[in-house]
Amino acid sequence: MLEKLFGFNPKETTVRTEIMAGITTFLTMAYILAVNPNILGETGMDKGALFTTTVLMSALPTIFMALYAKLPLALAPGMGLNAFFAYTVCLIMGYSWQFALTAVFLEGLAFILLTITNLREKIVEVIPPALKTAISAGIGLYIAFIGLKNAEVIVDNPATLVSLGKLTSGSGLLGVIGIGLTSILLVRNVKGALLIGILATTLIGIPMGITNIDGIFSIPPSIEPIFMKFEWSNIFTAEMATIVFTLLFVDLFDCIGTVIGVTTRANMIGDDGKIPNLKKVFMVDSLSTAAGAAMGTSTVAVYVESAAGVNEGGRSGLTAFTTGICFLLALFFAPFFLAIPAAATAPVLVLVGLMMMSNIWKIDFFDYKESIPAFICMIFMPLAYSISDGILLGHLSYVIINLLSGNRKNLTTGMYVLAAIFLLKFILQ
Fold this sequence. Notes:
Blueprint (H helix, E strand, L loop, with lengths): L1 H5 L8 H15 L2 H10 L5 H22 L6 E3 L3 H12 L4 H20 L2 H8 L2 H22 L3 E4 L3 E4 L5 H18 L5 H12 L33 H28 L12 H18 L4 E3 L3 H6 L5 H14 L3 H4 L4 H14 L12 H16 L3 H18 L8 H16 L1
């Protein structure tokens, strides 16, 4: 039954492992329950309604992924895209949040069309093998950087952009303690090391004054203030087209990069280089974005934190199903789940970042036509703070280097087309 529902293979994993992996993924993603309402709330949207919608649009798409695509991938309103929604479209450009929700809905419809026509799959197929490996490693660096930043181990610095934070007190100290504790658990091969690390670091944060638990149970607010609040009057304007294209472009390559990275880490990519049920993954992503807009939130996306569950041994849809159920429970236990500080999930992100770099040996670093684009892809993900920009620059450099160095046999028509689109994107931005 589990095999039919979730693609569960008892030769590869166990029910206990899948459940632990799902809980781990949830705990690394739980921050979105607090962050998304705060970001979108800046536009005037009801924060209580946003909390409920964020939970539902994390739980339901993830359960759908579990049952339909049968992969250990979790979804939620995407970070970065929610900031673009709130700060750029609404606060800087001056459009209403209803206008922005309409743009997200149109983006979802466009994604459905791209998925039905297999264009998203074709894009994945033209990415060179070296770049696919680099994407996984680059995402590792990216999420490690996010973890260190969230724990304030790395902080802003006007002179050097970033610098080392204060490690002798506060969040920085808790983050360092968490990294050390979780590392020891991993070295000692303790089952559920990542999950135990999150919970233990959360508890350590109580006497430090960082973890604050204000109750356990709460009743979820209604989503009525933001449900189906579309603004159709401006859908045929140039402004709407620009915003929809931006959302579409960023989400497209964030999704592709995340799926490639996580499935590579899980050794799910077949000998032919193809990802199982890829079209179904893209369909879940597309439908979730459109449904999320109707429910009142920004673009729903596959989360890179899914890698945390994969590294706990998650290999089937049962992992994602567990994550989805945890999100549903969070509807009623929000104070407890929201009490987990960023410093407690940071160690997992840092160490998963390490794990995602484990396949880097597949890149021949002495073959510069392969290694230079791969390095560009990897390094720009954390530095540009964008998975999609890393993919774009890596692919562009791959085509340019191979073309100008006389290695045209390495290039396909699809690679040229994709490079031209990427180049146009940078010219027009």
